[in-house]
């Protein structure tokens, strides 16, 4: 099989790439990376020295593609399907890319910072950085709440790469940071649609055995 995705089932950015692969219907081989195990970590870093997943390796084209957004763009370019995550229309594609970057930079990043703080040793906590992340996350969620009023999906009425970004970001916010219900009714309804969407429902089902390890 030409494509191999290096991943971990709990990684929110891996969820983003997996949604795209399942939505695209492109065959691939998942390769579990366990960074706490030296052998697995070193083998992965030999492929991508930065050591962050997801990473897609395409044997047929001799390419290694890091980062979830780049992976989605690459699939749209080299392995297009009928359900395009990057719309063919230039204006719609621009809107999808804008929403993709918004969710990654203004929701996803801050969610990860808050959850990651729980894994820090007691003598290396960063209360100031944590408070900054919480404040920034509230701003991002507020913008997303207004944006989702009257629309079905992140960039309009069609599921796109933006929804691949939004799904894991909102899921982990709701599960491990603070429930969306009550404060963000539009996002609550949107997350409900995302969790029922077949490609993301499959990702969540596969990740379920690992969810007990998410720090709450």
State the name of the first-level CATH class of the largest domain: Mainly Alpha
- Helix content, binned percent: 55-70%
Q: What CATH architecture of the largest domain would you give?
A: Up-down Bundle
Number of alpha- plus pi-helical segments = 8
- Counted up, domains total 2
Broad structural category: alpha+beta
Instruction: Quote the beta fraction.
Output: 5-15%
Strands in their spatial order, largest beta sheet: 2-1-3-4
The biggest beta sheet is recorded as: 4 strands, mixed
From the alpha-carbon coordinates, what is the Rg to the nearest angstrom? Answer: 17 Å
Envelope shape: globular
User: Kindly, what is the distance between the CA atoms of the first and last residues, rounded to a whole number of angstroms?
Assistant: 37 Å
Low-confidence stretches: none
The gist of it:
By secondary structure, the chain is α+β, with helices and mostly antiparallel strands.
Polypeptide structure, described:
It is a single chain. The chain is of the alpha+beta class. It folds into 2 domains: 76 residues, Glutaredoxin (3-Layer(aba) Sandwich), CATH 3.40.30.10; 108 residues, Glutathione S-transferase Yfyf (Class Pi), Chain A, domain 2 (Up-down Bundle), CATH 1.20.1050. It has a 4-stranded mixed β-sheet with strand order 2-1-3-4, covered by helices on one side.
